[in-house]
Amino acid sequence: MKNIKLMLQKQLKLTKQAFKQLEIAVLKDHTLDDLYVDAIIKRFEFTYEMIWKLTKTLMNDVFEQKCYSPRKCFKLLIRLNIFTDKKFLWDMINARNLTSHTYNIDYALNVLNFIKQNLNKIKNLINNLELTISSEFEQLIVTKQLFS
Predict the structure, then answer these.
(1) Coil, helix or strand for 85?
(2) Distances from the Cα of 139 to the Cα of 9, 17, 92, 144, angstroms
(3) What distances in angstroms separate CA 21 from CA 42, 47, 88, one per listed residue?
(4) CB count, 10 Å around CB of 11?
(5) Of 140, 130, 148, 126, nearest to 2 (Cα)?
(6) How far is residue 122's CA from residue 45's CA, in Å, rounded to a whole number?
(7) Which of 37, 63, 129, 143 is the most exposed place for a label (fewest CB within 10 A)?
(8) What's the domain range around 44?
(9) pTM, full prediction
(10) What is the pLDDT of residues 48-58, one digit of tens each?
């Protein structure tokens, strides 16, 4: 269990760092040029990947709920009431999927708008994951103390 906690803490730290870089890019006052759009989208992709891998580890190793795709992992977040904004989660998956197709400026601008409009929701999702991780391990410690 200690290894799982360390792995989750490391993934959480990397997720928060990725988000911080995304947030810095979004909040900077830039002119809307291709490099700016590309940089924000790349930071969003990295943040998204870190969120879903953190969620996957949490679901598989702590909750013992198997999930091998972002959609399945995010469905478990909803079912376990860790994060319940289903529309946002699906929109985030769709935004990420748009970034992986042939580059299209219209898609890129749609993803950029999604990121800017939902920066706080991304942050809330990460915060909810952090709270869940800390509370799950606190409960495990209490349970171990009760049964030892």
Answers:
(1) coil
(2) 16, 27, 31, 9
(3) 10, 9, 21
(4) 20
(5) 140
(6) 12
(7) 143
(8) 2-146
(9) 0.89
(10) 999 999 999 99
Identity of the amino acid at 135: S
Give the CA distances from residue 72 to residues 57, 59, 68, 75, in Å, rounded to whole numbers and listed in that order: 13, 10, 7, 5
Q: How many residues does the chain have?
A: 148
Cβ atoms within 10 Å of 10's Cβ, excluding its own: 12
Distances, alpha carbon 55 to alpha carbons 39, 103, 124, 148, in Å: 24, 28, 14, 30
pLDDT tens digit string along 101-118? 667 888 888 999 999 999
CATH, residue 23: 1.20.120.330
Q: Which among 19, 80, 75, 72 is positioned nearest to 50, based on CA atoms? A: 19
Q: Rounded CA gap, 47 and 62, in Å?
A: 22
Q: Spell 114-126 as b/e; 16+ CB within 10 A means b.
A: bbeebbebbeebb
Pull the structure tokens for residue 52.
């879903």
